[in-house]
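Database export, one record per block. Field names are fixed; values are copied verbatim from the stored entry.
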Amino acid sequence: MKANDQCFCGSGRKFKRCHKASFEPVRPGAISPLRPVPDTIEVPAYVVEGRVDRWDEPAVKSPDVIARMRRTGAEAARILALTGAAVRPGITTDELDRICHEATVEAGAYPSPLLYGGPDNPFPKSVCTSVNEIICHGIPDDRELVDGDIVNIDVTIFREGVHGDTNRTFFVGEVDDVSRRLVQVTYESLLRGIEAVKPGEPFSAIGRAIQTHAEAEGFGVVRAFVGHGIGEQFHTDLHIPHYHEPRLTDIIEPGMTFTIEPMITVGAHEHVMWSDGWTAATIDRKRTAQFEHTILVTDDGAEVLTPHPDT
């Protein structure tokens, strides 16, 4: 739209005075200092060691690990809903980080993103907030959300020795129709991916289901970032593409736990990285949305370990 056109939202105001700010490229803001975590809270090994060391964690989890993941996943989903309820025009993503951080430590949990990634560039915040064209791993800062934005909030917590990982994309005030449809199709794509989880099927079936639905609706699927195994480690060796990769012939087995987290785009699926080494944006600066659940493979399908309490 042109700056002096009447805004699409029906407010009667000019576009430049109403929703134009929400279509400006997202730019990095100031990042506040690290938020403290009480000494009484158990922390993941990477916080103590200052680096991420992977070990050969079993893909099929024991009943004890699964029970702990159910409890931790449910708490992560509750904290996500609490944080998302604060989304409104004028709030900063740093304030969303504060809300998430405080809710996490009050629950006796550690915010898994905090200091993840190694000594050279550890993630400095407790939650990822990805606005508009930011695909994933956006760092909360002092940028205020504006009417018409969409924002993905990605919450992962560590409690009882396991991680629970989930995210949702939220509307900020009045959002344009394309963005609304993007978010709806992204959520539907997540559901299609979950429905494709069946013991004995290859992991490629998940991405095929997601890609088929998203592209049929006219949207793109990000390739560079995928779902992952999860459990006692934040990320294990399982990789779950959200596009069809026929060479991925590994078989889904009962007891496996992993995330499905499709990132769907209005335009190109390729990305560019910000200089912070974390923030990934669509190459054409068009909008993208994401939803995520942690999944347990059952004998006949999938159980969502991060059920959203309000849906």
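Remark 1: The mean pLDDT is 95.
Remark 2: DSSP finds five helices and 15 strands in the chain.
End of record.
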